Amino acid sequence: MESRREYKLKKLVNELKNKKGRHTELVTVYIPAGYNINNVLTQLSDEQGTASNIKSKSTRKNVTDALEKTIQHLKLFKQTPPNGLAIFCGNISEREGVQDIQLWSVESPEPLSVRIYRCDQEFIIEPLEAIITPKDIYGLIVIDNKEATIAYLKGSRYTIVKHLTSGYSGKHRAGGQSHRRFERLIKEQSHEFKIRVGKYSNKAFLDDLKNLKGIIIGGPAGTKDDFVEGDYLNHELKKKITSVEDITYTDESGIRELIEKSKKALSDVEMIRQKKHMQRFLKALITPKDPVTYGNSVENAVEMGAVEVLMLSENLEDEVIDELYKKAKSIDAIVEIVSDDFEEGFQLWNTFKGKAAILRFPIE
After folding, report:
1. Tens digits of per-residue pLDDT, 94-105?
2. 243 pairs with which residues across the strands?
3. Which of 108, 130, 96 is closest to 35 using CA atoms?
4. Distance CA 165, CA 225 (A)
C-alpha cells in the first residue's frame, strides 16, 4: 500500500475510534470484494422497516436517517469496488436531541473478506485496523544478568511487551560459605532468570509465529550468548533468530539501541527505512555531501524537480501532505510520511517544521 493511502486510512481509523453514539445508532456496513451491492441495498431497506419499531422517537429517527443516507450513498456505485467497500454513518452529536448525521466511506486498498451490518454505539473498525497493521513483526529481546526487556517492532513503531528484573546484585558476602558455592548460586540465579525471560518471550511471540519475520537479541556478550545458545526459547522461535548484537543497555533505551544496531537485519522495516533517510539528511546538514533543504523551502525544491527524497511529518495538515505528495511523485521522488514516535521523526516535526528533502542537485 502506498504511504499516502496508508496514512489516510490510519487517520480515518483513529477518527472513527473517537466517534460515539448516544444510543445504538451508529451504522457500520462492510461489503466484501465481489459481493452484489444490490443485495446490501435490499438488506438496508429491510433494516429501515425494522428500525421503525424502535420505541425511542429520537433514536428511531437517527437510525432511519443514517440508513437512508447510507442507502443514497450506495446508489452512487454501479457495483462493489474491486477490493470491497466500508461505510460508517450515524448521529455523532454530543447534545441530546440535536442531530448531526455524518457519513464516511472508504474503498478498501486490500480485498475485504467480511460482510458486516451493525447498528451500535460505536463503529466497527477492526477489519480496517487489520489492513493497516503491519503484517511482518520482529521480536526484540535485550538481556543481561540484572534485567531484560521484550518488545516487538511493527512498521514504524515498537511496543514494549515485558520488562523483567532478576534481583541480582553482583555482590555477595561469603557468610562462612565457600566461594565456589556462591559462584554456583549466582549461576543458578542467572539460569532461572533466563528461564523467565524465555517464558515471557515464548508467550509474546508464539501466538503470531506466521507473521514473525525474525527475532533480534542484544545485550552484553556473555549473557546474551548464553541465552541464545541455551535451551530457553521455544525451538520454533530459535529458528527465527536473525541477528545477535552487543549492546550496552537492557531497558527501553536498550530496545532503541538494538534497533539502531540491527539496521541491516531490519532493512525492510518502515522505521529503519525512515531513520536511514532522516540520518542521511541530518548528516548532510553538518558535512554537505548531499544537497538538502527543509521547512518552507521544500515546496520550491519540489516545484523545481530537485527532490530525490521527500520526508513529511504525519502531523502536517492533510492538504499539505496531499499536495506535496502528488507533486513529488510526479517527479519520481521517494516520499516518506514519518511518524514522530522515534527520535528522527520527532526532530522532523519539531526542528524542521515537518518538511525535509534530500536533493538531486543544489538550488538557490
Report:
1. 888 889 999 999
2. 216
3. 108
4. 18
Domain range for 86 is: 3-132
Q: Select from 268, 287, 302 the last residue of a domain.
A: 268
Residues constituting the chain: 364
For residues 346 and 256, the answer to whether their CB atoms sit within 8 Å is no
pLDDT at 172 over 60: no
> How remote is the C-alpha of 77 from its chain's centroid?
31
- Average pLDDT over the chain reads 91
> Which DSSP letter does residue 210 get?
G
- Summarize pLDDT for 216-245 with one digit per residue, the tens: 999 998 889 999 999 999 999 999 999 999
* DSSP code, position 352: S
> Residue 129 class from Cβ within 10 Å (0-12 exposed, 13-18 middle, 19+ buried)?
middle
- Let me know if residue 364 belongs to a domain: no
112 CB burial (10 A radius; 0-12, 13-18, 19+): buried
Furthest-apart CA atoms within the chain: distance in Å: 88
* pLDDT tens-digit series, residues 302-345: 999 999 999 999 999 999 999 999 999 999 999 999 988 888 99
Q: Is the pLDDT of residue 91 over 70?
A: yes
**Does pLDDT of 171 surpass 60?**
no
What's the pLDDT score for residue 23?
Answer: 87
H helices within the chain, ranges in order? 3-17, 37-51, 57-74, 126-132, 179-205, 221-229, 235-238, 252-261, 270-286, 297-303, 318-330, 343-351
Number of domains composing the chain: 3
φ, ψ for residue 207 (rounded to 5)? -65, -25
Among 132, 151, 186, which residue terminates a domain? 132
Which of 116, 173, 170, 179 shows the shortest CA–CA distance to 145?
A: 170
